[in-house]
Design goal:
single chain, alpha+beta, 6 helices
């Protein structure tokens, strides 16, 4: 039916001619049939001409009612599609965005500086990603590797009530001897509420499983501090105050130059976002 309507819109003159024929041609035929007497039993009608015209008028009314009903259905479907589009636009307008500020340098703490900084953190005021590099087979013995300090902001249009980690890919350094190939184990902790426009510290607390004292006493990170170049690929689940949940995939890469300050146990890096994608999360 929709194709018929489109054809009518493209051939208006032809449609008008056909409409005139459909309306008036049967009336002319009926008129001629009742004016010409063929004296044939099988052709002569037992109905009056007025009855035939009344029947034809009912048929035209029936067809008109069907057409109008179909047009009403099309308009209702069009209105529903518009409502769905407006609702989707509204959802996109109010969706949150956990954004990592790229306009500043970030600190990476190692060894004693890491433990000292960890003691200063108030977990009720910051977000913390607990990241574990597991071994295969698992040992259950862990040691701290590093602490990365970032700053995040909710640059979206809705308050974030809770944040979860769906999946995470992380590399501390390309040459990292402890960058095990097994899937990293990550979890979100601290205060994960974030109002629109609010900024908050985000720490990535990196630990690794060990199987020997040599690994426990390794100073590889301090000895190769200039080789540390974090890569972060993470998918957050953002639960908003309005009841919607969104999936946010964000990819961050780091860079370093000789002018960035470093000490034996603390270094700085610039963080850049190469991709950020937010969509409705359906579980």
């Amino acid at each position: 039916m929709e194709k018929v309507i489109n054809w009518i819109m493209k051939h208006k003159k032809t449609t008008i001619v056909l409409l005139i024929l459909v309306i008036f041609a049967p009336m002319i035929v009926i008129h001629l049939l009742y004016k010409i007497h063929l004296n044939c039993y099988w052709i002569e009608s037992e109905w009056e001409s007025g009855e035939m015209l009344g029947y034809y008028g009912s048929v035209l009314s029936f067809v008109g009612t069907i057409v109008l009903g179909y047009i009403a259905i099309l308009q209702a479907e069009k209105a529903n599609r518009m409502n769905d589009e407006l609702l989707e636009i509204e959802k996109n307008r109010i969706k949150p965005c956990l954004d990592i500020s790229t306009s500043k340098l970030y600190s990476i703490y190692l060894a004693d500086d890491m433990y000292e900084k960890r003691e200063q953190i108030c977990r009720n005021k910051v977000m913390i990603i607990n990241l574990l590099f597991p071994k295969n087979p698992r040992t259950g013995f862990t040691t701290s590797s590093a602490l990365i300090e970032l700053e995040v902001c909710n640059s979206g249009g809705s308050d974030i009530r809770r944040i979860f980690i769906n999946q995470m890919c992380f590399y501390f350094s390309v040459a990292d001897p402890f960058n095990y190939k097994e899937k990293k184990i990550s979890s979100m902790g601290g205060n994960t509420t974030l109002k629109v426009g609010e900024k908050k510290k985000l720490y990535i607390d990196i630990r690794r499983e060990i199987s020997s004292e040599d690994e426990l006493g390794s100073s590889w990170y301090q000895d190769n501090i200039n080789k540390i170049m974090p890569y972060i690929e993470i998918e957050f689940i953002l639960e908003t105050a309005t009841g919607y949940s969104y999936s946010e995939k964000i990819i961050c890469e780091s860079s370093w130059d000789i002018n960035m300050p470093s000490t034996q146990n603390t270094t700085t890096r610039s963080i850049g976002i190469s991709e950020i994608n937010i969509k409705k999360y359906n579980g």
